[in-house]
Amino acid sequence: MRFWDSSAIIPLCVKEPITPVVRDIFDLDSVMVVWWVTRTECFSALSRQRRENRLDYGGEDEARLILIELAGAWVEVLPAEAVRLKAERLLAVHPLRTPDAFQLAAALVWCQDKTAGMEFVSFDQRLRESARKEGLHILPKNPVNI
């Protein structure tokens, strides 16, 4: 079981240069834990790819179906006061944007701040570094193209 950021989920839905790396991580343990808004963030990313002509409508529809399938199996950390308070603390100590603070806060609530051995999958460099400083094990270890 690993915590997944939206940046690592999109390559499971759309073929990208980093898709094989993400697929290998997923194949080793397909139990995903995500923040409550992750599905919406992913829908936004897919729509942006279509608007930027990196996906056609058919590709977007196919990617959305894959996303819905993934979302049907993943575990979501729901909004709660504990997540909000943790996100506010993270904003004070890390150079994060609010959505990323909530992602990391959700991961820390999920593991109950017992970060030893807990894995965090992301390609967002700022979020990766903040999660590492919070004690999470970051995957992939040596990401390419981030």
Explain what this protein looks like in three dimensions.
With 146 residues, the protein is an alpha/beta fold. It has a single domain, classed as Rossmann fold, CATH 3.40.50.1010. 58% of the residues lie in helices and 11% in strands. The protein has 7 helices and 5 strands, in the order βααβααβααβαβ. The protein has a 5-stranded parallel beta sheet, with helices on both faces. α1 crosses α2, α1 crosses α3 and α3 packs antiparallel against α4. The chain starts with a strand and ends in a 7-residue tail after the last strand. The model has no long low-confidence stretch (mean pLDDT 96).
Q: Can you tell me the CATH superfamily?
A: 5'-nuclease
Biggest sheet strand order reads 3-2-1-4-5
The percent of residues in helical segments reads: 55-70%
CATH hierarchy: architecture: 3-Layer(aba) Sandwich
Oligomer type = single chain
Order of helices and strands: EHHEHHEHHEHE
Per DSSP E runs of 2 or more residues, the count of β-strands stands at 5
Give the low-pLDDT segments. none
Q: What is the molecular shape? A: globular
Annotated CATH topology = Rossmann fold
Class by alpha and beta content: alpha/beta
Distance between the termini: 23 Å
CATH class: Alpha Beta
Tally of separate helices: 7
Tell me, rounded to a whole number, the average pLDDT: 96
The overall number of domains is 1
Any idea what the radius of gyration is? 15 Å
Tell me about the largest β-sheet.
Answer: 5 strands, parallel
Strand content: 5-15%
